[in-house]
Write the structure tokens for this entry.
Amino acid sequence: MSEASPVENVDALAVAILDAARTAGVPADAVDGLKRLGGGASKDMWSFDLMLDGGGRMELVLRRQPPGRRFSSQGLGSVAREAALARLAGEAGVPVPAIAFELPAGSPAGDGYAMERLAGETVGVRVLKLPELADARAGMAHRCGEILARLHAATVPDGLNLRSQGAREELAALEVRYRDSGQDRPVFEYALRWLADNLPDEHRRVLLHGDFRNGNLMVGPEGIRALLDWELAHVGPPAYDLAWLCVPSWRFQRPELPVGGFGTREDLITGYVGAGGAPVDRAELHAWEVFQTMNWGVMCLGVAKAFVEGPRTVEAAVIARRASETEFDLLRMLAPDHGGWNGR
Amino acid sequence: MADSPPPAMLIAEVRRALDEGLAPGFPQKVAANALGIAQRELENGPPVSAEEAARMCAAIRAGEDGADLVGELIALTIAKLEIDQPAYPSFRAWKDGG
């Protein structure tokens, strides 16, 4: 993208944001302090203050996909649709940043929305380490259960065309992604075979966040302040969200705490059921943990494929090689008592 | 295909990053990590050949278990971790007797 492009020009972006705010009925006078916060390959985040007519200031963050960039999501058809979901989740009692306004179709700023700028820690490894977050960590697995129960009880919205995927469809899609990677990984082959025999058919489908894990939870000393990043939201079995939080790769230096490195499955399930979630079958949860661990492994293979095909970064190369850690975790789950582990 | 990206690509990418000016701190740690993976694989050889991995996958897909399929998978996976991620906390916990 050239430097002359309007989407990379901060002044032009400020004008487009101001227009979008006014179009949405916010009595805005100016955009102040617009600066880029970073973001991924397809989307970026900008911090700014919206100065209001007659005084007052809204501290906001813009999450957007600039015009012309290919939409990378497996789930929602546009970034602005995340705003609708975040609104709905907020009404269901899930902590989310308040949505201020969406970018209208055709905005020169692209596709996205502005939300309340919250403070808090999101980096997974720091959430698990910072001393001031010790109390937050103690209650977090229980709280995650409550949040998921509320989300899963929400009415699935019409009009967003959310993909609905049951156990068999999820497994078929996982296998396709694995085959597309071009890598032959015997442990993944073995896990696929195990999942075909052991992943229970779902008995109901609910609204899922789709990426509920460390990194998407914003945490302060008092606990979880917000659940972020709704781009993988879809409809499916409740265990999908519960199990993703239990993938060993998010535990960092605390492998003995299965829920994100901060809590126990008992706390997670107690919180879930206590807030109205349906009883959790432990064998079903285990099967979905196997699924989700392989899912993360296959994501690493996707990073490897993208690296080989270019463009390349050193970070991507290292993430690609993390597929092996998921193979280790899968075998620990599927054959914990095998004699092969005794030869260390 | 064997596990990807191969050592030569890891080294080439770190070299490119160094040429362009690698920032101190985290980017340097990531680069050192990438070189560590490449070095261990070059020293020890790949944990499994591409042909052998393909043969094992085909056998598992065909439903064959062999004499001790799981034992083979465990040995292979330990060898992979020693190259790709010897510091992975779950792996270290297992080695320490966990």
About this structure: DSSP finds eleven helices and nine strands in chain A. Residues 40 and 65 of chain A are 10 Å apart (CA to CA). The first helix of chain A runs from residue 10 to 23.
